[in-house]
Amino acid sequence: MEASDVEYRCFVGGLAWATDDNSLHNAFSPYGEVLESKIILDRETQRSRGFGFVTFSSEQAMRDAIEGMNGKELDGRSITVNEAQSRGGPRYGGGGYGGNRGGGYGNSDGNWRS
After folding, report:
1. Is 36 in contact with 55 (CB distance < 8 Å)?
2. How would you write the pLDDT of the chain (114 residues) with one tens digit per residue?
3. Would residue 108 count as lying in a domain?
4. Could you tell me which InterPro entries the record lists for this protein (predicted)?
5. Burial 24-48 (b: 16+ CB within 10 A, else e)
6. Whether this model's pTM surpasses 0.85
7. How far apart are alpha carbons 19 and 94 in whole angstroms?
8. For residue 38, what are the domain limits?
């Protein structure tokens, strides 16, 4: 990942249904330059899913916003703010068939309670 690809993005959870991109932008702009504020919408209903993301121009602005806004009230709801996980790159964990987990039929030691 090149330096120009770095994004300073916060995850914002616990949002009120009435919160829109503008109110999210206005709430976070005192902490620094907001490049984007985005409420995530349900694909079918186009209603808020109760969370969104705010992207800042600098890491310091993002950190200040996390510290200043986490646990605060926005549009009548207490919100959670933390650093967003990167969208790109390898993803580890989750599903798949990795490794021997033991147990089940056919254990080599013959003991089904391993």
Report:
1. yes
2. 445 567 899 999 999 999 999 999 999 999 999 999 999 999 999 999 999 999 999 999 999 999 999 999 999 999 999 999 876 654 444 455 555 555 555 555 555 555
3. no
4. Nucleotide-bd_a/b_plait_sf (IPR012677), RBD_domain_sf (IPR035979), RRM2_NsCP33-like (IPR048289), RRM_dom (IPR000504), SLIRP/GR-RBP-like (IPR052462)
5. beebbeebbebeebebeeeeeeeeb
6. no
7. 31
8. 3-83
